Request: fold
Amino acid sequence: MEAGAAVEDCWPEFVKDPRIVRWTIGFVRWFCPDRLIEGIEGDLLEGYDNDVGANGKRIASRRLVWNALKFFRLSIILRNKIQYRNNSLIMLRSYFKLTIRNISRSKGYSFINIFGLALGIACCLLTANYVAFEFSFDNFHPNVDRTYRVDQTMIWRPEGGTFGSTGLALANVLKNDYPEVEEVMRINTPGDFVIRYSQDNGDVASFNETLIFAADSNFFNFFNFELKEGDPKTALKGLNKVVIAEEVAQKFFGNEPALGKILQWGNDRTPIEISGVAKKQPENTHIKFNYLLSMYTNPNIKRFEHSWIWTQVVTYVRLAPGTEPASLENKMTRIGETIIKPSFEKMGINYDEYMSGKGNWEFYLMPLQDIHLRATDNRLGTTGDARYAYAFGAIGLFVLVIAAINFVNLSTARGTKRAREVGVKKALGALRNSLISQFQSESIFLALFAMILSVPLMELLRILIVTIMKDDMPFGLWDNTAFIVALPVLAITIGFLAGLYPSFYLTSFLPVQVLKGKIATGMGNSVLRNALVVTQFTISIAMLIGTVVVVQQMEFVRSADLGYDKDNTLIINYAEKLGDHVTSFRDEVANIPGVQSASIAQDVPRGSMYEDIYTAEGSTVKLPVSAVKIDDNYFKAMGFQLIAGRTHDVAHNASDKQAFIANETAIRFFGWTPEEAIGKVIIYPGDDNARAPIIGVMKDFNFQSLRTAINPLFFDHVESKMWGNMRVIAVKYNTNDLQEMIQKIEQKWNATVVQTPMNFSFLEDDLANSYKQDQRLGDLFAIFACLSIIIAMIGLIGLVAYSAEVRKKEIGIRKVLGASRSGIVVMMNSSYARLIVVGLLISTPLSWYAMNYWLETFQFRIQISPFVFIFSGTAVMIAALVSVAYLSMRAASVNPASVLKEE
Amino acid sequence: MSKEFLGEFEELVLTMVGILQEDAYGNAIVVEIKQRVSREVNLSAVHVTLYRLEDKGYVKSNMGGATNARGGRRKRIFQITNAGLSILQTMKEARTDLWKLVPQLKIVGLSS
Reply:
C-alpha cells in the first residue's frame, strides 16, 4: 500500500484530466495485489500515453478500459486473496489452539457451555424440522403454484361458511366457460369398503379398507405420485380400473406383480382390474390413497353427473399461467345465479329459499399448498393447524434462546479470568480488533463443537420423543440437504451472536486497571446477566405452566362426565354389513360370557355427526339437528338420562318405530319445556315431510368434541324409514379376559358373514383420538419444558459454581467474622432465587394469556387456577435449589484458613 | 527432460525477457512481441505470464527507477534467472532433437 500512497502525490496532469482514466486506475487498484499494482498501473498508463499520441484520446481511453478489464481475471485476483487467506488461516489456527487450551483449562465450564448449547441446537433443529415438514405439504406436485382446490359456500349448514367439497357439475362449467382454467380434475370419496381377492387355490383374502377414492383420469397430471407398475397416463381411463398403493399390493400379493390382477370391490363384489401400483406416497401431502378407482367405476358418478348438491367430490383446477386467482373467484360468483338456480328450478327446488341465511353460493380457490395448514376441512385426509406449527416452532426457539443465554452468561462471568489475559495481550501491543476476532472465533469454535455434539443428541431426543408420543411424528428428513447447510449456519450464527457481547465487553478493559487486579473481584456486568437469567426463568416457567395447563385440560377432557357411560364399551363398526342378520347377531353377542349388553345404533357419540334440518308442527323454527338411530336397548345400555317421557320400545309398541327422543338443547330451541315437548310432532321436510312424535326428552350430553357446545340431537329408531343405513353395535362388557370375549364375538361374526373381516374399536380410544393434536401439544410441551429447565439449571450451576469460586475469599472472611454456614448458604442462594421470583412474575401474565387463548378453543374447559403458577414457580425454585445445593454447601463449608492463607 | 514445462506463450515471454535485458517490463514485452513476431498480445496476459514465471523461478523482478513518464510509476523490470535460461536451452534442444527425427525429404518436397 505504501507504493500506492506514494504515487498519489504525483498524479500527472493528464491522469487527473479524463475521469475515465482515474476510474479505471481506481478499479485496477481495487482488485490488484498491492505488490503488483505499481508495475501494472505504470504499464497501463504508458500504453495509454502512447495511444493518445498515436490514435487520439477516445480510442486510447477505450483501449485503456479494455486492457484494465482484462486484468480482472482469476490469476491476478487470486494472487492477493491467497496471500491474505494464508495469513488469516494462520491466525485461525492459533485461535483454534487457544480455544482448545481454554477448554482444557476449565473443563467443567466448557462442558456446561458446549453441552447446554448442543441441547439447545438439537431441540431447535428438531422442532424446525417438524415445522418445515408442516409447511412442505404438497410442494412437490407439478405447477403447484397455479393449482387450486375449489371450495364453495357450505350449503349444508343454515349459517353458511365454506367447505372443500363440490358437486360433480362444477368441473364441466369451469372447463367450458372459463378459459382461465387450464385443467380440471375431481376426486370422489365413495367411502370405506371390504376389498377381496380370490386366490388361485380358491381362498379369498379380504380386508376392511379405507382411503378409497375415485378420480378423473388426469389425476397424475395434478399430483406427482409415481407408479411402480402401470402407466400413469392410461391407468385411470375406462371403467373398473384401480390404482393401488404399494402397501396394499404387498398385503394382497406379496412380491408378485399386481398389474392386471382382479380385485373385488364392496358388497356387490364389483370386479376391478389393477391398472397401476403407486410407489410409496410421501408423508407431506394432503391426499394419501390406498385405492384410486377410475372415476366412473363408482356408479353414483354417472347418476349425479349434473348435480350441484351431491357434494361428494373435491374439484381441483390448474389455472393458465398468469391468471389472477382473485379475479377468477370474482368471475365465478355468477355461477350461482346463472347456472345453479335454473338447475334447481328444473328440479322444483326454490333456490332463494334454500340459500336464505347461507349467503350467496360462491366459489373460492384454495391454493394446493395451503390446504394442509389453512383449510378447515379436507375430504381426502387430515388437516394440520398453522397455529400448532407456529407454537412448536416457538417452543424450539425458546429452548435455543435459553441455551444461548447460558453461553453468553458463562462467557461474561468468566471474563474476570480472561481479563488478565486481555490485559497482558494489550500491554504487549495487541490491537482491540484482533482480540475481538480472537474471542469471536473462540465463541464460534465452541458453537461448532456444540453443533457436532448436537447431532447424536438430536437423534437421542428424536428417539425419546417418538417413544413418548407413540405417534407418527415425522422427523425423518435427515438426508435433506437444507438441513446439512442449516446446521453449520445456525451454529456459526449462534456462536457469532453469543460471542458479540463477551468479545466487546472483555476487550474493553483497560490494561492498567486489569493488571492491577481491579476488575478481578467483580462479577462483570451483572445487570445484563441478571436480565438474561430472568429471561431464562421466564421462558422455562412459562413452558412449565403451559405443560400443566395442557395436562390438566387433557385430564379434564379424558375424565369429563360426558353425560353417559363411556367405559368398557367395545364398538363393532360397519355392522350394516351383517344385513338382515344384524339383530340376531346382536342377540347372540349379548349371550356371550362377559358381555353385559349389546345394542345397535347408527353410530356412537364419538365426534362428527351429520346434521339435517328439522321443523315441528305449528312451529316456524327450522333447526339443524343431528339424528342418530338407536334400538330399544341402546339408550339404557349407554347410561343416557331421561328427564321426561319414555324411550323407544318397539317390542311392545310398533308405533315407536317412528318416534324421537330429543335432547334438552333441541327442545329449548323449539321453545318447549320437557313436559310440553312430549307428543309434539317433528317434521323432516327433506323426506316427503316425514313426521314423527317426540316420546322422550333426554338430558344433554356431549356427543361431539368438547370443543363445541352441545347441539340439538334426536334419537330415532333403527327401524324407522329415515335415511341412514350405517350401523354399529355397542357392546358393554365386564370381563377379565377381554381377548377371549373378542375372539368369541369374532367367531360369531365370521359365522354370520363370510369373507368380511370384523372391525372393532373401544369407545374411549375413539374419543381420545379426536384430541390427538392437543395430546401432542401437551407431550411436546412437557418434553421441551423439561429440556428447557434442564438447560437453565445447567447454566445456573455454572454461574453459581463460578460465583462460589470468585467469592471464596469473601466467604472466608465472612466466616472468620462469625457468619454461620446456613447464613452463607442463604446468601449464595438468595441472589438467583430473587431472579426466579421475577421470572415467575413476568411469565404469569404471558402464559396466562397464551394458555387462555388455547383453552378458548374448548367449549368445556378448565379455569386456570392460581395454583398452576405457584406450583410452576415452586417447582423451578426447588429444581434450582437442588441443582446448586451441593455447590453452595461446599462453598459454605470451606475452611477460612485454606482460602485466606495466600496473599 | 525434467517435469518442468513451459507453455508456448510462456516460452515466448521468457525469451523476450532474455532479449530485452534491463528493459524487460510489461509494455516493452508487448511491443517487442508485436515487432518481432507480429503478434498482438494483451498486456494482462503478459503480466499474468510474467508472474507465473516468477512463481516458477525462471524470472525475478525488481522495481526500476522513477521516471516522469508513466504517471510517475516505476517499472517492474524482469530478469531471466539461470533456471530460466537453462529451461529455454533444454526446450530448444529437445525441439531440435525431435526435429531431427522428422524425415526432411517431405519438407523439401513441400517447399519446392
Chain A touches chain B through 25 residues (CB under 8 Å). Residues 1-16 of chain A have pLDDT under 50 and may be disordered.
